[in-house]
Amino acid sequence: MLNKVDYLNEEDQTDLLNFLAGVLAEQHLAQTPIFPLSAKLGLSARLQDDAHVWSESCVKVLEDHLKNFLGNHKQTAPTSSLALKADNILNFIHLSPGVVGKEAAGNSRPGPRRGAPGT
């Protein structure tokens, strides 16, 4: 979700969307949908019951996507989310030498550190 697009002109919106799509592609998330919207405009439209402004805000597109996703994927979404989080953690550890502490290296009792208060 890319909010506050109403603050940008059309050219800046396009540049920002292209940049964000590139970042997602670098992270192997090219299939991730991007929702450029104006939550402020969407809220105003809801409060005034204005279907035209609601459509302009693009919040309806996000709402429809979420309804579809939750309706069709409510069983698989938690598992997929957990798998993605685990994959991200493993990638972080793999790419960050020295991140794994004593606890992960086999010492399951963290205990106080030297120089910590009370040691």
Helices and strands, in order, run as HHHHH
Q: Tell me the β content.
A: under 5%
Total count of strands: 0
Helicity level, as a percent range? Answer: 55-70%
Structural class: mainly alpha
- Main sheet overview: none
Question: Average pLDDT, to the nearest integer?
Answer: 77
Number of helices: 5
User: Segments where pLDDT lies below 50 for 5+ residues?
Assistant: 102-119
- Report the radius of gyration as a whole number of Å: 22 Å
Identify the overall geometry.
flat
Number of domains: 1
First CA to last CA: what distance? 48 Å
Structure notes:
With 119 residues, the chain is an all-alpha fold. It has one domain (5-95). Helices cover 57% and strands 0% of the residues. Helix 2 (39-48) runs antiparallel to helix 3 (51-57).
Q: What is the element layout, followed by pairings?
A:
Layout: H1 10-26, H2 39-48, H3 51-57, H4 59-73, H5 77-95
Brief descriptors of the model:
119 residues; mainly alpha; 57% helix; disordered C terminus
Task: Describe the structure in brief.
The chain is an all-alpha fold and 119 residues long.
